[in-house]
């Protein structure tokens, strides 16, 4: 049960049975849930009288910074995805947040809209905030990463606690790494020779004041290591307040000690040697708190997020791109590769997050985007959970123990903020039509034409700066592409402004076989159109002209207020003032193509989603004397100036 929850902007506290507090939240408040640490957890936001979660799509440190500041912490240190603190319940309120980090609250950041998402609760986002400001480090609190923080070994003990990093010297006893980061330090004692039964090691904190709760993490391995004791020493008396005898666990455990009736005292940790010489006792992350322990629950240790800048140097991606390539790890001063055998998604997530990326996009076997490595293969048979701070903390066969060859070297493509934001058209001499290609992890690939329709095409064209799509092509109409086929379907609605907002299905295919089996023969294509108002007194009125290889017009036949609404909205205006039909358009080329029988319902996101018939040369009953004209008014707040933009 999660007891401690931090909520912003509390408007009231109401006491009910047994004086239990009920927190009254207001719209936009955030809280952290799913952890016994107040400074980290699943992010939940209050809206429309209900708490809900935030999807982890494009979840990065900018969003974390805003959330943590909203919760009165100074900053964020780590972002969690894939429901690291358990799956929430209720609505998923926000998705595709795009904060710049300067916002005062998370609702100030751009997003899809309340409740608009394509996520499930297994994608709930979490955050860890900088918490040193709330846990003073100069009053008994210590991470032991840099020094002993003023702790001193006692004069009346038999041997001393030792500051240590990585695993302990004795085999299969002490921790493999510290509790906090995986690369920091902790203090420990060895029970090995020359220690004898009953010997004690004591370490004492500086004097602390007004402390109400002491917490720390401990690791005790070995059945006969005896005991670990904690005392409070106020100068007059030394009182035991906590004890643990025998082997406690093979992982870090959390201890929570309430302190009452003391204004000033020192904390003493005492380790006592048992009957055998196989075991270690370790302590890490001591916190002396001025707040009550009532909301803290002892639990097994959860890894605290690492300072990524300190562990990036032990791993790299080798290739032409910073976010994709062959994985190499540094051990004993030598770079080596990782075998792809039993290398699964959790391991790839650890690699990408260790490198500072949002998440993993895909696992890449050798040798599609990277060449085989050289030298030693360091790791094989990795078994990661996906939450480890570094790939070297995952269980494996041992350093350099592998039967693999370098053609099995594995690589990854890591997810960046720009994933699926880069789109281009290829295979045509014109910039407004061609084979659709998307870039993932810096690598261009194509889209399979399964389900490819006018809605998907419209979004691609809008992202490229055009007004919409006029034609949809399949079966590699603009030639077969090369490289990976990144997507098998897009499932766009048509009102998205970026392809990354569609419910895309990744379907990575690498092909080196014969042409007649080449899946690139199913590459999707598109033709885009541009829209403008010409011949009017201002840019908000004029003859509706559409570019389909050349500029043409729209016949007033069936052109009504619904069609005018779509035109004005595409031109960046909210309202239609009037439509004019049957006016001669002397400035227009008399042989320009004409769109006729245009039928819109008024709700389309683009004119290309309406029904129409193009007339090229066969003028039929429509002439340019019947060109449709509109007058628009009230610009949209996010109006985008018309005009093709081949880039982003």
UniProtKB/TrEMBL annotation:
It holds the Pfam family MAM. Keywords: Disulfide bond, Glycoprotein, Membrane, Receptor, Repeat, Signal, Transmembrane, Transmembrane helix. Residues 140-295 form the MAM domain. One of its GO terms (cellular component) is membrane. InterPro entries: ConA-like_dom_sf, MAM_dom, SRCR, SRCR-like_dom_sf. SMART domains: MAM, SR. It is a single-pass membrane protein. Residues 1-24 form the signal peptide. It is found in: Membrane. The keyword Glycoprotein applies. Disulfide bonds join 55-119, 68-129, 99-109, 384-394, 492-502, 600-610. Residues 30-130, 315-415, 423-529, 531-633 form the SRCR domain. This is Deleted in malignant brain tumors 1 protein-like isoform X1. It comes from Actinia tenebrosa.
